[in-house]
Write a structure and sequence with these properties.
three-stranded antiparallel beta sheet; five-stranded antiparallel beta sheet; 4 helices; elongated; alpha+beta; about 300 residues
């Protein structure tokens, strides 16, 4: 390193003695010390190959110096704004107000696909009528899926044999009354549904809750930044950059509970107890604050 610094110093002195008189080589942190009155600008590209008198750079650590008009210039002329990065978190707890139920009707036939289809449609119509009789509004019920499938078996000789034709009809209901939702589970199974599922819980309007979570997160980030700034003897200035992420935005829970009865008589209509519990809407912010002298 010493020989490199000596070579650079000698080369600079031979380049423009009048302009760089008084240049001193110190260490790797400061390759040279500019003399008083030396014009300073910045530059950061290229390698010094021939003559730096034409604006080519001189290597200084990871940055470069450029010679303009015989004067060596520095990339560190403008001081950077000191900053502080902080992360904040905010959550809001809420009770979901909508239960999502799904009702599945499966019907099969050993030889006739249309027979399985007609049986599934007839059973689905009976389930729909039973749910409406129980008090479910028309706009709260929708058809989610109708699927047909033919199952085969392949023997050891590679020949395929028909097992059965299957049809699946799926209905979905959104219910705000959880007591009614529990009754609908039993009523659908008694009316001919093959499976009834508590698909999840939803929050009808999360917008205001998200805004509250964001406000909590931003305040949390500033409080953490101010604590760090006080310990360092400076104060927090305005935010320069912010990134925001929301969690729990999806309206549905991640788990499902299923209530399955393969054969239910008309008198068997137990009401399933349903409790939505609590749900958290979360926000995370990443903020870069400016730092200012305390005073």
């Amino acid at each position: 390193m010493a020989s490199l610094l000596d070579n650079v110093e000698g080369w600079l002195r031979g380049l423009a003695p009048a302009a760089i008189a008084g240049v001193q080589v110190s260490g790797p942190a400061h390759l040279w010390t500019p003399p008083a009155g030396l014009p300073i600008t910045s530059g950061r590209s290229g390698r010094c190959r021939r003559s730096c008198s034409r604006g080519e750079p001189v290597l200084r650590g990871s940055s470069y110096h450029r010679v303009q008009g015989g004067a060596v210039v520095s990339p560190d002329a403008e001081p950077r704004q000191p900053t502080l990065f902080a992360t904040g978190y905010g959550t809001v707890s809420v009770t979901p107000d909508v239960a999502v139920l799904r009702f599945y009707v499966y019907r099969t036939h050993p030889t006739n696909h249309m027979a399985a289809y007609r049986a599934a449609v007839d059973a689905a119509q009976q389930v729909i009528a039973a749910l409406r009789e129980e008090g479910l509004a028309d706009d709260a019920l929708r058809t989610v899926d109708i699927e047909t499938n033919t199952r085969h078996h392949t023997d050891r000789q590679g020949r395929r044999h028909l097992i059965e034709h299957e049809v699946r009809y799926v209905l979905e209901a959104r219910v705000r009354d959880f007591e009614l939702a529990g009754k609908l589970v039993g009523r659908a199974l008694a009316a001919g549904a093959s499976e009834a599922t508590l698909w999840g819980f939803e929050i009808s309007d999360v917008r205001e809750l998200e805004l509250q979570a964001v406000e909590h997160a931003v305040r949390h980030a500033r409080e953490r930044a101010e604590a760090a700034a006080r310990a360092a003897g400076v104060r927090v200035g305005p935010p320069l950059r912010m990134n925001l992420r929301l969690s729990g935005r999806a309206s549905r829970y991640d788990y499902r509970d299923s209530f399955v009865v393969y054969s239910a008589g008309p008198a068997e209509e137990p009401a399933a107890p349903i409790s939505p519990g609590q749900r958290e809407i979360g926000a995370e912010v990443e903020v870069t604050f400016a730092l200012e002298p305390s005073g």
